[in-house]
Design a protein that fits this description.
Distance between the termini of chain A: 33 Å
CATH superfamily of the largest domain in chain A: Farnesyl Diphosphate Synthase
Number of domains of chain A: 2
CATH class of the largest domain in chain A: Mainly Alpha
Oligomer: homodimer
Strand content of chain A: under 5%
Largest interface: A-B, 37 and 37 residues
Amino acid sequence: MHSIQQLQEIINKAIADTKYTQKPTELYEPISYLMELGGKRMRPVLVLLSTELFGGDVMKALDAAIGIELFHNFTLMHDDIMDKAPLRRGKPTVHAKWSESAAILSGDVMFVEAYKMMIKVDDSILREVLDIFSDTASGVCQGQQADMNFENHDEVTVDEYLLMIKQKTAVLLAGSMEIGALIGGAEKKQAKLLHEFGENLGLAFQLQDDILDVYGDPEKFGKLVGGDILANKKTFLLIKAKELAKNHKSTELAKWTNGTSHDATQKIAAITSIYDSLEVRKLAEAQMEQFVTKAITALNQTGIENDTKVILQSFAESLLIREQ
Amino acid sequence: MHSIQQLQEIINKAIADTKYTQKPTELYEPISYLMELGGKRMRPVLVLLSTELFGGDVMKALDAAIGIELFHNFTLMHDDIMDKAPLRRGKPTVHAKWSESAAILSGDVMFVEAYKMMIKVDDSILREVLDIFSDTASGVCQGQQADMNFENHDEVTVDEYLLMIKQKTAVLLAGSMEIGALIGGAEKKQAKLLHEFGENLGLAFQLQDDILDVYGDPEKFGKLVGGDILANKKTFLLIKAKELAKNHKSTELAKWTNGTSHDATQKIAAITSIYDSLEVRKLAEAQMEQFVTKAITALNQTGIENDTKVILQSFAESLLIREQ
């Protein structure tokens, strides 16, 4: 059994060892560049953990794990164009460093590379893995489009928001785990339970991110606290607050989220105070807890008892520890 | 046996019957829109013809044929963004009608849909078909990047040009035919021969296009005669002319291709006259003839004798009839 850190090392080594040296270089250099920017490698780690959960050899799942990471980074490459983001992990984004055309086309070829890695699985699970991978890919694109649409919609419901984060974030964790499970020798039904675990874990993760943006410890969070508030991002907290705010509190919230020339510190303080008074943090935490409970229930239903299950379980439960 | 027209009708009906109704609509409407703009459907027709060549049922190859057309249209959707093209077949391009972000993301999801269609082939050929499809997709991306790079390179050799058109155009015809052959029950070796046929056919087609741009009958050609000349496009004719032109002819050619403020009619006449004096048309035709001969040789090596072979053969030979 491997620790998460060991799995990250296996993945980072595989990524460092894979050279994309084909021509033209404008297509292949951005792949290496983006893949080597680092990160927690959460998705490929989940592939390997899921393989190990069913007693499979992680090395057998490594190609698929890299395929998942390639896919994830391909979506980042294209998302960064759409979001006009200049930086990713503190480095210039691909479209900023090369060109927008290079980022579109290099992303396309990166997606092909992702499929090529997925295709390496055994014949016995090839069709199943490809079906899961393709459905996952469609879901992620749908989530990204829904997220972009939210920027122009005044009214977004909690249900619409949960569907969006499910597609944009959770389905990829779910797909990673289902594929990993199949490679590990899981039965279809067990793989589906891992899918359920991953999906609920992903939903809980995103809600945690929404909460940490407002209530996180600036030193631990790693991002600017209040960033979502400043960007008027429709997070669970804001959507819930809009839903609950009445009379002058509603007017107050609208004032801060509509205007663009507010002082940043004042805006963060004002909106946080509205969130506090409406207790939306508690609601978000309760929703998160539901997802974590669902995730753990699904994991327990697999009927597996081993060290990897404990790792996955504590991975999920760690979300329940509140950051103050 | 079906005629090409009948196959086009089968494909157009299948496209008209397939509705992309998933949400968000910004992702799926552009797929229907672009697929229904029409066209000769050459690539899916070649899939079906290749299936029939080996005695297979064209209906069994229909999903893969649509997958190839989806892939082709996905590349057009992304190419149009990169080329900043406002129109495609006289209608607004996807990025012009929706937005650039929608065109990027809808293209991505269209690519997934293409894979989903390819995955429907029988288990016995699934891995092979996916390998061919993925390699084809990489090749097309490489060709598009090479084509874009040529715009900024002063010196492009004939070999570089032939590699570019092979990747950008010919590999997709080759892949379509190889996949169609496998679905039709061809042996691997026979499918490879169809690949060779398709590749050489594609190369010949592109050279014909280069020739017709200058020497085509304006009424038959369907595009502006001299369009490549006006755009200083590095076609076989221009590359060859640059290679052969000496002294004042070389200066003359450079003058017309470097300047931007020339009168269009004068420029077309002047460059055509240089082409005539260097006899580059003959060289292009000789090169084309080589490709057609290679294509037909490959087809004959399949050892198949039936009506479909005759259709493919005359398809290839029709390229040898000069348009005056």
